[in-house]
Amino acid sequence: MMPETPVALDGGNLLLTAFSTNLEALEAQMNNTLGSQHQLERHADALAEYVKSLDNIEEPLNIRSYVDKLQDCRRRLVKTSEMMNSLGDRLGQLQRKIAREAYAKKTSIKEQSVPEKPEK
């Protein structure tokens, strides 16, 4: 005679739990990266303003190439920030889909009737 094994009604949570820790870690890394990007953008802006103020000095300095490089760096930072925001949105959608799937699994498991033990 086989021992009875209970039916797991919380099986849908297993999928969500398995992915949630990895998704939370990824989301934390993305938030840290976004913070670093914003800080780097502020520093690049401050440096660009400083370099522009050097351009107002009466002595002619050839800093135009540096200003162009800083502006290019700023454009890349903005583009990277936009990509990170897009990834954050996609990550949120993925989390919602996983939660919906886990809920659907859980409800389908709960709706199934437990088979009765056949009598001998």
TrEMBL record:
A Pfam family: Snapin_Pallidin
Per the record, the GO terms for biological process are: endosome to lysosome transport; intracellular protein transport; lysosome localization; lysosome organization; regulation of synaptic vesicle exocytosis; synaptic vesicle exocytosis
What would be one Gene Ontology cellular-component term for the protein? Answer: synaptic vesicle
Q: So which domain of life are we looking at?
A: Eukaryota
- Alphabetically list the UniProt keywords: Coiled coil
In alphabetical order, the GO MF annotations are: SNARE binding
Q: Which family does it belong to?
A: Belongs to the SNAPIN family.
Q: Known InterPro entries for this protein? A: Snapin, Snapin/Pallidin/Snn1
Indicate what this protein is called per its UniProt record: Biogenesis of lysosome-related organelles complex 1 subunit 7
What stretches pass through the bilayer?
none
The answer to keyword Amino-acid biosynthesis applying to this record is no
| Organism name | Diploscapter pachys
